[in-house]
Specification:
By secondary structure, this protein is α/β, with parallel strands linked by helices. The protein has three domains: 174 residues, Calcium-transporting ATPase, cytoplasmic domain N; 195 residues, Rossmann fold (3-Layer(aba) Sandwich); 248 residues, Calcium-transporting ATPase, transmembrane domain (Up-down Bundle). 45% of the residues lie in helices and 15% in strands. The protein has 24 helices and 21 strands. The protein has a seven-stranded antiparallel beta sheet with strand order 3-4-5-6-7-8-9. Helix 15 links the parallel strand 15 and strand 16. This is Cation-transporting ATPase 13A3. It is a multi-pass membrane protein. GO terms for molecular function: ATP binding; ATP hydrolysis activity; ATPase-coupled monoatomic cation transmembrane transporter activity; metal ion binding; P-type transmembrane transporter activity; polyamine transmembrane transporter activity.
Length: 641
């Protein structure tokens, strides 16, 4: 515990793996690295030294003979760390070679996963109840680490160990014991997982810990409900000419014939005997089961039972003893079965999976933060619901603005197309008013809604070409066309209608001069004649209708719940809507000759103005109703891991 680690002092404080730091602090020992001056005085690099707190070397006064100083040091108990074999996720262990002050022979210390360490120890040093004790501790959710020691032979000298392989050292060890660590759930964990479950977002555990420890923690945090079964899945690779097989066992008890019949005896037999994966079936529809799979078993299933892997992924909740590359393969496998995967990790072992996931969240600002697109400053998973809510809100906002800009272009195109049919067009000031006053203000402010405070089971569309979005845009286009056609055709049937050229309200009527050249119809003549080609009953009616349609689609597309805050919380958007609507209503019902002159609007009867108001109110109501219907019919349920 004091010597087998990779801790190093930085700035007067020990830094390194949190687990190793806790273990070392529990010993109370002192770690001391040689200074640059001490290293420079020797041909070889001086080792890092650890010693008990009551063995602090005395400060010898200047002038003390060297032999007296050596006598004082021989009374100390110090261990020098000569060689370090770093922890390997694939090997699940680390080791060091040390030398105790005053001894000639070297020693090796090793720690790691209990199963791995036990396999490298002499059988006579392993207690007979090793497996049962280990199982009892892991079932309590404790993290268990095994310790081992080996006193090296005289042939292992200083120079030889500098180039020796770890395999030559990590064998024939003496088993020392087990260290138990309790990693309690953080207060934020249970509420966050409960919120994700309410939103129908599936959660799985991927860890390097022992299988039973992981299952215990999964039960404690609610990933596995108390009354639901856990099936331990052990896949064995081909050996001695026999095909790969899969063994199944309940985590709480050995399977009885009754239990096997409940799951499906024939189905289990097919898979255990290693028959064709295409014939393997799993009868788990009548009850809830959770598979717990180790890293080695996951690799065997991926290689030899590829058709069975998707079925296991649908019910797999615990993945234990997973190496870094296996975590990445798991994320890829979940993505292949159509899951949107978010990954949380806090170590270098998670970098590959964090990078591969759709949304990787690093809970540490160290190695993992380099690979993940998101880094949380809070070392807990409370950021996960926030990220999902903000991501959904951002996606809905993007689609909202996209649809609004698409409808803006189509609405204006329809207006111009109808006016072209009578050799007319929108005026310059009308274009400026629409583009700057209406579109720019609404497009900017409609994106300012914050995310909704709760997660919901529904999910937003994930693609611009989804049926829901296309149907929404298409229905709004047809609705806009219908109301513009109604205004365009009905105004020409009014008894007071006459061809363009009678001027604005309060202005003297005048005629419009049109001429045609030999190549087609063109506007010819002075600026006054061009202005008269704009001013008409059709232009005035379509201008008011189209302007209110921009407001209508902006209001309909700016959705609130379940992904964003309600519209009334977006003050700037509400203010923009009210300002635009008030201006249009005022100019429609109480026209001012000067404004009509600038906008090139014709004078229309008050009754027709009221009709246009009723028309745009109907348009607004239908736009809102159709958009709500499209949203309710197209919203799906979330399928994520």
């Amino acid at each position: 515990m004091a010597s087998c680690h990779a801790l190093t002092p930085i700035g007067g404080r020990l830094s390194g793996d949190p687990l190793e730091l806790k273990l070392f602090q529990a010993t109370g020992w002192v770690l001391e690295e040689p200074s640059q001056e001490e290293t420079a005085l020797h041909d070889q690099i001086q080792p890092t030294v650890v010693y008990p707190p009551d063995q602090i070397p005395p400060d010898m006064p200047a002038g003390v003979p060297e032999d007296l100083e050596l006598m004082a040091l021989t009374k100390l108990y110090q261990i020098g760390i000569l060689v370090q074999f770093a922890f390997s996720s694939s090997l699940q262990r680390m080791s060091v070679i040390t030398r105790t002050l005053g001894e000639k022979r070297l020693s090796a210390y090793m720690k790691g996963a209990p199963e791995t360490v036990a396999s490298l120890c002499r059988k006579d040093t392993i207690p007979g109840n090793f497996s049962s004790v280990l199982e009892s501790y892991t079932q309590q959710g404790l993290r268990v680490i095994a310790l081992a020691h080996r006193r090296l032979e005289h042939r292992f000298t200083w120079h030889k160990i500098q180039h020796i392989s770890r395999d030559a050292i990590e064998c024939h060890m003496d088993f020392l014991g087990l260290v138990m660590l309790q990693n309690k759930l953080k207060p934020e964990t249970l509420p966050v997982l409960a919120e994700l479950r309410r939103a129908c977002i599936r959660t799985v555990m991927v860890t390097g810990d022992n299988m039973l420890t992981a299952v215990s923690v999964a039960r404690e945090c609610g990933m596995i409900p108390p009354k639901e079964k856990v099936i331990l899945t052990e896949a064995l690779p081909p050996r001695d000419g026999q095909p790969a097989t899969i063994n199944w066992q309940y985590a709480d008890e050995l399977p009885t014939p009754e239990v096997i019949d409940k799951v499906g005896k024939e189905d289990i037999r097919l898979m255990v005997e290693g028959e064709s994966p295409r014939e393997a079936r799993l009868n788990l529809h009548d009850a809830s089961y959770h598979f717990a799979i180790s890293g080695k078993s996951f690799s065997v299933i991926a290689d030899h039972f590829p058709d069975l892997l998707p079925k296991l992924l649908l019910c797999g909740t615990v993945y234990a003893r997973m190496a870094p590359d296996q975590k990445t393969q798991l994320v890829e496998a979940l993505q292949r079965v159509d899951y949107y995967v978010g990954m949380c990790g806090d170590g270098a072992n998670d970098c590959g999976a964090l990078k591969q996931a759709h949304a990787g969240i690093s809970l540490s600002e160290l190695e993992a933060s380099v690979a993940s697109p998101f880094t949380s400053k809070r070392a807990n998973i409370s950021c996960v619901p926030d990220l999902i809510r903000e991501g959904r809100a951002a996606l809905v906002t993007s689609f909202c603005v996209f649809k609004f800009m698409a409808l803006y272009s189509i609405i204006q195109y329809l207006s111009v197309l109808l006016l072209y049919s009578i050799l007319s067009n929108l005026g310059d000031f009308q274009y400026l008013f629409i583009d700057i006053s209406i579109i720019m203000s609404l497009a900017f402010t409609m994106s300012l809604n914050h995310a909704w405070k709760e997660l919901v089971p529904q999910r937003p569309p994930s693609s611009l070409v989804s049926l829901q979005l296309l149907l929404s845009v298409l229905t709004q286009i047809l609705l806009s066309l219908a109301f513009q056609l109604a205004a365009f055709l009905l105004v020409r049937r009014q008894p007071w209608y006459h061809p363009p050229g009678d001027g604005s309200c309060g202005a003297a009527p005048h005629n419009t001069t049109l001429s045609l050249n030999s190549t087609g119809r063109e506007w010819l003549g002075s600026e006054e004649e061009e202005e008269e080609s704009v001013r008409s009953f059709e232009n005035t009616s379509l201008f008011y209708v189209s302007c209110f349609q921009y407001v209508a689609v902006a209001l309909a597309f700016t959705k609130g719940r379940p992904f964003r805050q309600p519209i009334h919380t977006n003050g700037l958007f509400v203010l923009s809507l009210l300002a635009i609507a008030a201006f249009l209503l005022f100019n429609l019902l109480k026209p001012i000759a000067t404004l009509d002159q600038y906008f090139e609007l014709d004078c229309i009867p008050y009754e027709w103005r009221l009709f246009l108001l009723a028309l745009v109110l109907g348009n607004l109501l239908l736009s809102f109703v159709l958009e709500v219907r499209d949203m309710s019919s197209g919203t799906g349920r979330l399928r994520g891991a």
